[in-house]
Amino acid sequence: MFILPGSHGNSHGNSHGNSHGNSHGNSGLAMAPAGGITLPVALPIYLGEGELMPIEPGKFKDTEVHPDLWILPHLPRLLSKVMPDTDEKGKGYLKLQKIIDDHQGGIETDLARALNARDANLATFGAEAVDQSGDFKHYFHALLSLNPRDHKHTMRLISLVYAASGVVGMAWKLAFMRERPAQVWPGLFPALPTPPHPSFPSNHSLQAYTVAEILIKVIAAVHPNATPYLRELATRIALNREYVGIHFATDTEAGKCIASDLKLQLVKDDTVKELIDLALGELTLSAKGL
Questions:
Q1: How far is Cα 266 from Cα 270, in angstroms, rounded to an integer?
Q2: Which candidate, 209, 193, 211, 198, places its Cα nearest to that of 276?
Q3: How far apart are CA 23 and CA 32, in angstroms?
Q4: At 20, is the secondary structure helix, strand, or coil?
Q5: C-alpha dihedral sign at 109, 125, 17, 210
Q6: Which of 15, 41, 257 is nearest to 136 (CA)?
Q7: Domains of the chain by range and CATH?
Q8: For residue 186, which of 35, 167, 219, 286 sits 20 to 30 Å off, Cα-Cα?
């Protein structure tokens, strides 16, 4: 039987904790001066007055600003353009409600990925589900071999889209207030802690698919064969949340549905368009080995 060790500590201590411990992102990026490293030094190098003098290092480098922090001033304006109308009589709400209403087979089929073949699914996907619990942008970084020196705009694009889609998703969650699987199926015992917010839609699904589709607009001209990899990664991130018993299948479907509309809004924004152009330049140079 596959056991997720210390699931609460690992998923929230390491994922949510690392999201702040690693400069607001569990991405493992080597950012900040000296790569952001800390050494076990008790005393600074100081020999006495006049013996060591301060240097003039210049300003903080733009490349050393973590993407998750760089986007913060840009986020409010972007959100003002993409926040949804969550009125229960609105087209968006009714479109999402239809996903739940049209689901065939009831709760048991909606939770099929959590109820069936659990040991096998967790043995295969459990470790990455834990790692993705808090922040999963680093999976897109790894897939495209990104680094903060050569691809700072691509990483900023990912961070901006990820953050904006997360806020949009939370707005819908608070509109539907859907119960979590563990509340509906008490014996489910999810393999990760149930998050303290509503279930529908899945933000992991929404964020993963939105990031993937925006990146496809960037990379299709450079690496057209990367498109299926990006979409498959988004699917995998989304389904992992079902395997561990945190989301219904209809949560995942709703996240993907919102992402397909949200991407069309995002690409109209000036900051997003500029980042897409700059990211294309970065990935083009990388493809040429420059």
A1: 9
A2: 211
A3: 9
A4: helix
A5: negative
A6: 15
A7: 7-287 (1.20.144.10)
A8: 167
What's the mean pLDDT in 159-172? 98
**Structure tokens, 221:** 């001209």
Mean pLDDT of the chain: 88
Summarize the confidence of residues 125-154 as an average pLDDT.
95
Query: Can you tell me the distance from the alpha carbon of 180 to that of 168, in angstroms, rounded to the nearest whole number?
Result: 19
Query: Which phi and psi (to 5°) does residue 116 adopt?
Result: -105, 140
| Three-state SS annotation for 174-195 | HHHCCCCHHHHCHHHCCCCCCC
Residue type at 235 in one-letter notation:
T
Give the length of the chain. Answer: 290
76-95 burial, b if ≥16 CB within 10 A, otherwise e? eebeeebebebeeeeebbee
Task: State how far the Cα of 217 lies from the Cα of 202, in Å rounded to an integer.
Answer: 23
**Section 176-197 average pLDDT:** 96
Task: With cut-offs at 50, 70 and 90, classify the pLDDT of residue 35.
Answer: low
Question: Rounded CA gap, 252 and 242, in Å?
Answer: 8
The residue ranking higher by pLDDT, 31 or 247, is 247
Q: How much is the pTM? A: 0.86
The yes-or-no verdict on residue 55 having pLDDT over 90 is: no
Amino acid sitting at position 142: A
Alpha-helical (H) ranges within 201-269 are 203-219, 227-243, 249-266
Cβ–Cβ < 8 Å for 242, 114: yes
